[in-house]
Amino acid sequence: MHLERVDDPGDERIADYRSLTDVALRRKLEPEGGLYMAESSKVLARALRAGHRPRSILTAEKWLPDIERIIGDLDVPVYVVSDHVAEAVTGYAVHRGMLAAMHRPDLPSVADVLEGSRVAVLENITDHTNVGAIFRSAAALGIDAVIVSPGCADPLYRRSVRVSMGTVFQVPWTRFERWPAGIDELKGAGFTVAGMTLGEGAVSLDELVAEQHDKLALVFGTEGHGITPAAERRLDRRVTIPMMGGVDSLNVAAASAVAFYATR
Predict the structure, then answer these.
(1) Cys-Cys link to 137, which of 100, 223, 257, 262 (CB 3.0-4.6 A)?
(2) All domains in the chain, ordered by first residue
């Protein structure tokens, strides 16, 4: 690695980190395809294991041994800054030791991620924390892939990556180009498409499990209104988690963990 010490927050070498929003990073023309931010040594390690390439790393002196252990002889500039400079550049306190500006990989096709027997589909989920938490549960409970709708929050948004603990690099994922037409693609690949809903006429999660589907796609809708009517009309099954204690619903991330565990 190439160590370069930077004392000026305005230094152009660290322009990738200078208060850029994730939208700006995605649209950054150089490098082609845009960037995303990996925060913490654990997240960087998982990104590297997944084959992602760092453009540079921003860190404090005390974290250099960890960085060296993770990247080895990888040819990448490592910018060493004080905590004050890091906060002045990024606009927030960097508590987890380092940030890495990573090249965004090309997403696989939907067909390429449908080789397993269980997939999760996220429709228009807008909270990045929920997206990250769903990915973490998907990794922990053996979901083979995650597919997100065009309107869903970006799994490579910094907060999503952090909440997922880097499992967004571990679970294969991609984005539908068209939705809800993507449901037909799932059915064409042999999946039973089951949407988690509070609507009337839904079967219980236990009933879905008892049906023993060979291939199952679990659809989770947006935090406020759930699955859209257009998507719901295409579902093979409408499924609910029975509630007790006067509670009518779970947060979508919690519901996904329950559904992943029940159908494992």
Answers:
(1) 257
(2) 2-103 (3.30.1330.30), 111-262 (3.40.1280.10)
